[in-house]
Amino acid sequence: MALEQQDLSRMLETAIVAARLAGQRAMEELSYAKVSVKNSNELVTQADARCQKIIIDRVKENYPDHGFIAEEGDEGKMFKQPPRGRERFWWVIDPIDGTNNFAHSMLFFTVSVGVLFEGAPIVGVIFEPATESMFTAVKGGEAQLNGRRIVASEETIDQFASVGLESHFDDGVPAWTCELMQRTRFRNLGSTALQLAYVAKGSMVATIAGTPKLWDIAGGVPIVEAAGAVVTDWQGDKVFPVDPDTYDGRRFGVLAANRKVHPQILEMLKH
To answer: Is 123 within 8 Å of 175 (Cβ atoms)?
Structure first.
């Protein structure tokens, strides 16, 4: 099917409302979050599942036949519900991106909602409830923060540039992280989605992530690209399209950066 602008706008509005409702619920529960450990290495709170349900229920009011991939399923697994109709739309949801922060009453967390069609993102929403910041984009449109256009920076790598880094590496800390730490003001906000949003609005020149899953990036990638930045894997290849039908929770290596910095960091990652 051909996507019309009014279709994208309607989906975007649904995503905005759903993300805001979930974010408001998260803020209400921030001070008394009940925390547990899932899969031996991740924190989860009761608020994660509650916020996810708020989003899914809201989306289903308008799109009952669309599919869903979300972080919080049964027994520590992801939630997956394929589309029921012929149209292959998938809503990809992270109800609280930055759960570790949230569990410790730190305000760096977001609600991330993306819509995939034919495996590629067409709608992206990242909501930071602590600051009421709503980052949005649709395919072919501009990136916005609270309704105003945002664009990626034109800074290069220097002592004043901020670069987002993850806080953990499975196989030890690679040498390129030390180089970036020495050459930039490196940052880790504890939320992949938030760091993608900050690349889109020019606060960071780049963010590098080696362990995000589909729900961590589906909302942010269309915003970053609409803002004029570049998103690839660590080899410089496109991250999307992906096949939601066969997606099993695998991790992605993601580099999002402005057009000046992207080739520089890509070269670092190859060494």
So the answer is: no
204 DSSP assignment:
-
Last residue of a domain, one of 128, 149, 170: 149
Q: Where is 144: in which H helix or E strand?
A: strand 144-145
Whether residue 208 sits in one domain with residue 142: no
Same-domain pairing of 21 and 144: yes
**pTM strictly above 0.90:** yes
> H or E segment at 42?
strand 42-45
Same domain for 135 and 41: yes
> 7 phi and psi, to 5 degrees?
-65, -45
Residue 43 sits in the same domain as residue 134: yes
Instruction: State the residue range of the domain holding 195.
Output: 162-269
Alpha carbon distance 213, 215 (integer Å): 6
* pLDDT tens string 152-203: 999 999 999 999 998 777 777 888 998 899 999 999 999 999 999 999 999 9
Report the 10 Å Cβ neighbour count for 241. Answer: 12
